[in-house]
Design a protein that fits this description.
Mean pLDDT: 78
Number of helices: 6
Structural class: alpha/beta
Order of helices and strands: EEHEHEHHEHEEEH
Strand content: 15-25%
Number of strands: 8
Distance between the termini: 31 Å
Strand order of the largest sheet: 1-2-3-4-5
Radius of gyration: 16 Å
Shape: globular
């Protein structure tokens, strides 16, 4: 994980940072580097323990975080750092494929558009730009997801 590729892409003035499995020790070396500032931040290491430092998250200054994480990972102690950081940063939008399904990020000349999709590529909720809607976890939706997952975990 210390050798994950870190990429920052820029399209039409928007920046996206992809950090692979960037861990805390390496992030502490990079946390003051302005080159990691981005609008969109793919959370490292599925958002679980050992992820980049909170100072790194703060330095990135992203308005949108995206994480490849299952719904089950969201609720365990290993993702506590990410949950607490998001609570302290309520203006940051968070999308996870564990709740949203496949996530597609498309850059446009005026910004970006997020869609959440099924495996077959059809859209679940329609295109939603950053300015139109902030995704927040609905407790009933979470309960429904867990009701489907817990029996599988307990088998």
């Amino acid at each position: 994980n210390d050798y994950s590729v870190i990429m920052r892409w820029q399209f039409f003035g928007r920046r996206a940072l992809f950090t692979g499995d960037l861990n805390k020790p390496l992030s502490e070396l990079l946390e003051d580097d302005y080159r990691f500032i981005a609008d969109i931040f793919k959370v490292p290491h599925h958002g679980v323990e050992g992820i980049a430092s909170e100072a790194f998250f703060d330095n990135v200054m992203a308005s949108l975080l995206v994480s490849p994480m299952t719904a089950a990972l969201w609720f365990i102690d290993r993702s506590q750092q990410l949950r607490e950081w998001l609570e302290r940063n309520p203006d940051t939008t968070f999308w996870s494929n564990g709740f949203s399904g496949n996530i597609r990020l498309s850059f446009t000349k005026t910004g970006y558009v997020l869609t959440n999709e099924r495996d077959d590529g059809t859209c679940i909720a329609g295109a939603q730009s950053w300015d139109e809607r902030k995704y927040r976890l609905d407790p009933d939706e979470v309960a429904a997801v867990l009701a489907g997952i817990l029996p599988l975990i307990l088998e």
